Amino acid sequence: MDIKNDFQNYDTPSGINNCLIDNIKKSIEILSNSKIGYEFRTTIVKEFHTIENIKNILEQIGSLPNYYLQNFEDSEYVHDHSLHGFSKEELTSMQELLRKTYPNVEVRNL
Known about the structure:
By secondary structure, the chain is an alpha/beta fold. It has helices spanning 11-14, 21-32, 51-61, 88-99, and strands at residues 40-44, 67-71, 105-107. Helix content is 35%, strand content 12%. A three-stranded parallel beta sheet has the order 1-2-3, covered by helices on one side. 19% of the residues are buried. The model has no long low-confidence stretch (mean pLDDT 89).
């Protein structure tokens, strides 16, 4: 399940109205209580995400087996080409910092 941002800022990258947050919370709960395999992930964008947003997401989804950060990459399929991903150094630093409290965090393609 893709988690766009923390609940306070969910509408920023997604355009999803904050009134739908209850549905997102319910989906997280259903997956967390299920016996099927799942993962949570966030595609991080410099203009939308900070380390605090990511910590908030981790608090909001609870202790889960796997949470993945995916770095934003500009491509022909992206509507807004003014957005940026994080550098490899920033991603490494972010992962090291987050793993101190949340050992289940992985940065994909690091």
